[in-house]
Design goal:
The chain is mainly beta. The chain folds into 2 domains: about 130 residues, Immunoglobulin-like (Sandwich), CATH 2.60.40; about 220 residues, Distorted Sandwich (Glucose Permease (Domain IIA)). The protein has 4 helices and 26 strands. The strands form 6 sheets. The chain has a 10-stranded antiparallel β-sheet, with no helix packed on it. Strands 1, 2, 3, 6 and 8 form a 5-stranded antiparallel β-sheet that branches. Strands 4, 5, 7, 9 and 10 form a 5-stranded antiparallel β-sheet that branches.
Length: about 425
């Protein structure tokens, strides 16, 4: 018989956990009785009732979708759904997450993460390292990306089936598949943006949907978590020889994108700016930077219908608008720089649901016109070009293609109309 560290057999420890959890369920059920109407909700928790089928049962893992996925069409002509599945090991012993299946409203499997995929997409709270394990009582986030072929229906609802190996459960019951975290798919209308820059050879670095630096940047702000950069892009630029910089890498003027004009992607109202932070020396991230300096010199533009655009890292003294200004699409907002939490000159741009660049949820947006002229082979190849000045390694066989009303995807090389 396996014995836990405290000497208690695993089955007994699980029984104690079950009793405690059952008591909690009973208590909540009794206290919920009331003659008052139950308030309704329109967020992803509304669909949670669909998770439960059949009699109630105690589950070792619980989960939810904190922010409902919003479908969009990418530059690959496919529909994408990008969101987070928050899970908690509700037992007193370790647990392995073995598999995650995503089903639509007709119970069709639209996503399937095997053990290797789980290890690459599950991050415990407070960690950026992937794992398939949750310690006792530990929470984590599974980053989900569903790709749907052009012409195929986009689901209205999703639910998740998670198979686990739970040490706290008795033999024969320690490998359950748990149905959890039902969510509606948010079918809101997306804004169509114009170009944030003009010209060619712009690289959409760390973009949607599987680059980890933005898409998985969960931040604990003001007592809750946000993924403001869920769909963020770091625009850099290459020269005609596919080099991001030439000469001394510590001089920001040696980078192709440095000093380029940053353009308003839509008409809007300026709700946030900063213009006084100095340039950083490229090559390393600044140490000990304050949270209110992370975006460097920036502009936040309210473009209506609950969408806001954040432009970050502009040159000191170059930011032109003031808070309260109404801006027309195409207006020059500032110049690309290397201020704030930046390792090389670039334009960071993301769309969000509030005016705070950090305490908001990232939203997808489409670009009205752009041409994809190439594709960087990998993030590692981009990092080498940015850090060492070597030419970008490009994917072979990528032909130029024009796009309208689509999202620019990670490592696309694009030309914007002038």
């Amino acid at each position: 018989m396996r014995t836990e560290r405290n000497g208690m057999p695993g089955s007994m420890r699980y029984l104690r956990t079950v009793v405690g959890m059952t008591s909690l369920v009973v208590t909540l059920g009794l206290t919920s009785c009331s003659t008052e109407a139950t308030p309704t909700s329109t967020n992803s928790s509304t669909a949670a009732a669909a998770t439960t089928q059949g009699p109630d049962e105690v589950t070792p893992l619980v989960g939810s979708v904190p922010f409902a996925p919003i479908p969009f069409v990418g530059s690959d002509d496919k529909n994408h759904l990008v969101y987070e599945l928050s899970v908690t090991n509700f037992t007193g012993a370790p647990m392995i997450v073995d598999r995650v299946k995503v089903r639509d409203g007709s119970d069709r499997v639209v996503g399937d993460l095997d053990a290797a995929a789980v290890r690459g997409r599950l991050q415990p709270a407070g960690s950026r390292d992937g794992t398939d394990r949750l310690a006792a009582g530990q929470s984590g986030t599974i980053f989900i990306h569903l790709t749907i072929d052009a012409g195929a229906p986009v689901p209205d609802t999703l639910v998740h089936e998670v198979t686990v190996t739970a040490d706290a459960m008795p033999p024969g019951q320690n490998n359950p598949t748990i149905r959890l975290a039902a969510t509606k798919v948010d079918q809101r209308k997306l804004p169509v943006l114009s170009a944030p820059l003009a010209g060619q050879h712009y690289i959409a670095a760390d973009g949607c949907c599987d680059a980890v630096r933005h898409t998985r940047a969960i931040l604990p702000i003001n007592g809750q978590t946000f993924v403001a950069q869920r769909y963020a892009i770091d625009y850099e630029q290459a020269d005609d020889q596919n080099r991001i910089f030439t000469g001394d890498p510590r001089d920001p003027k040696n980078y192709a994108i440095f000093g380029k004009e940053v353009l308003a992607v839509s008409d809007g109202l300026v709700v946030g700016t900063r213009n006084d932070l100095p340039e950083q020396v490229p090559g390393t991230f600044p140490a000990g930077i304050a949270i209110d300096e992370a975006d460097g010199n920036y502009v936040v533009l309210d473009i209506g219908n609950g969408f806001y655009v954040n432009y970050a890292h502009m040159q000191p003294g170059s930011v032109r608008p003031k808070v309260g200004d109404r801006i027309a699409k195409g207006t020059v907002l500032g110049l690309v720089g290397n201020t704030g939490n930046s390792v090389a000159p670039h334009l960071h741009l993301h769309v969000m649901n509030g005016p705070s660049p950090l305490a908001s949820q990232g939203l997808p947006a489409l670009y009205d016109r752009f041409t994809v002229t190439g594709q960087v082979a990998s993030t590692a190849d981009f990092d080498a070009a940015e850090g060492k000045g070597v030419p970008l390694v490009l994917m072979p066989g990528r032909t130029s293609s024009d796009h309208t009303d689509q999202m620019i995807l990670d490592q696309n090389i694009v030309t914007f109309p002038r």
